[in-house]
Specification:
Length: 172
């Protein structure tokens, strides 16, 4: 690429497993001023409706996401890309995997909270179709700062293209 950006990488998005935890914690610590601790991850992942996934690039954890399943929505609780993998398409691939789980019939929206001071995250999520829908005053326990609630809504254009099946053609 001649734009000065690093070339996008292809990752494999898979379930988070126990042996990923050291790399997940390293990414969490390097990416956040107030990182989750291992106990925070484990407490969350032990819940029935909580799922952890990682972006795997050449047997390395390039990023991770933790989200909750609710009746009509998904709630992204934690999301990070390791510094050396940023701006290489990993975050977009992870979010595409997550938004691909949305549907008109069941879970039609994805919500997350982002710190008011985390402009990079706000811009990233906005660029992929999220919109700020409200402000949670004093949301964080570690600081008095507010959180922006951002939402992504399922759109018919998100659905995979399915060709119509022609019964008459099959019979001939």
């Amino acid at each position: 690429m001649s734009t000065g950006h690093k070339q996008d990488l292809k990752s494999h998005i898979r379930w988070m497993i126990r042996r990923d935890m050291a790399e997940v914690l390293a990414t969490e610590t390097e990416g956040f001023e107030f990182p989750w601790l291992e106990d925070d991850f484990l407490r969350c992942l032990r819940q029935r409706n909580c799922i952890g996934m990682v972006a795997d690039c050449d047997d390395r954890v390039a990023g991770f996401m933790i989200y909750e399943l609710h009746k009509t929505r998904l709630h992204l609780l934690n999301f990070a890309v390791a510094t050396e993998f940023r701006r290489r398409g990993i975050g977009r691939q992870m979010m595409a995997k997550l938004t691909g789980k949305l549907s008109q019939q069941r879970r039609s929206r994805l919500l997350l909270e982002v710190r008011e001071t985390n402009l990079a995250a706000q811009l990233f999520f906005r660029a992929i179709g999220f919109r700020a829908v409200s402000v949670m005053r004093g949301f964080y326990e570690d600081t008095p700062e507010d959180a922006y609630v951002m939402q992504y809504r399922y759109r018919m254009s998100d659905a995979p293209a399915v060709l119509p099946f022609n019964q008459l053609r099959r019979a001939s």
